[in-house]
């Protein structure tokens, strides 16, 4: 039943003209018990949707319908190192929420791993989730909009090794490594991996033994003797019901 109400809310939001998207609009006939209007809030940076509603005056228990809109031209990106871009937060049973994506929602990129014997060679960091769901949710990805999972960081290379590349879209490149000599000295050889960007994962450093490349959207980082970081989810449902209307791009796992 609640899934049907979320679908009704989504239908109403998608018919609202752009000129009134910042205002209250009529609720679907089957929505909140008191026929409260749909409250439309914009999302322009990584956010917890419940926290945004609370800040806008939600009392935390009343029947309510919210539509959260990522505007065209905006990139909502999780923190570097695998951060989540949008977390629904927790909502009461009588709340109905929708997410309308006209811009882009990207999970944070996993960091590339350090290379060499010094510092210690490591695995790449995991990419972040674009949307993390804690309550029933309706999602509409509009034409030219997208939801993309963060890419995993590349593995660092052993010995005279370079750092791994950062994962899509903002993962940090790993530090280059130095190999230990038998007499206790070191050979400085590896260089730093490249940062991930919205265009893709960063390349691993190329001096000495190359580091692993960072993963593109929804992809794991490259593994070497150590593991590349796993990819995030485009939509991590946590077994909550999600209604999806995708007319744009969805890159990565949803489930």
Gap from first CA to last CA: 20 Å
Q: Estimate the helix proportion, in percent.
A: under 10%
Q: Oligomeric status of the shown chains?
A: single chain
Q: How would you write the strand order of the largest sheet?
A: 1-3-6-9-14
Share in β-strands? 15-25%
Uncertain runs with pLDDT below 50, 5 residues or more?
15-34
Would you give an account of this structure?
The chain has a 5-stranded parallel sheet, sandwiched between helices. Strands 2-5-8-13-16 form a 5-stranded parallel sheet. It has a 4-stranded parallel sheet with strand order 4-7-10-15, with no helix packed on it. The protein has 2 helices and 16 strands. A hairpin with a 5-residue loop joins β11 (178-180) and β12 (186-188). Mean pLDDT is 88; it is low at 15-34. The chain starts with a helix and ends with a strand. The chain has 255 residues and is mostly beta strands. The chain has helices spanning 2-14, 49-55; strands spanning 38-42, 47-48, 64-70, 75-77, 86-87, 95-101, 104-106, 131-132, 137-141, 146-148, 178-180, 186-188, 233-236, 242-246, 249-251, 253-254.
Features:
single chain; 255 residues; mainly beta; five-stranded parallel sheet
Structure, briefly:
This protein has 255 residues and is mainly β.
Task: Give the helices and strands, then pairings.
Elements: H1 2-14, E1 38-42, E2 47-48, H2 49-55, E3 64-70, E4 75-77, E5 86-87, E6 95-101, E7 104-106, E8 131-132, E9 137-141, E10 146-148, E11 178-180, E12 186-188, E13 233-236, E14 242-246, E15 249-251, E16 253-254
Parallel strand pairs: 1-3, 2-5, 3-6, 4-7, 5-8, 6-9, 7-10, 8-13, 9-14, 10-15, 13-16
Antiparallel strand pairs: 11-12
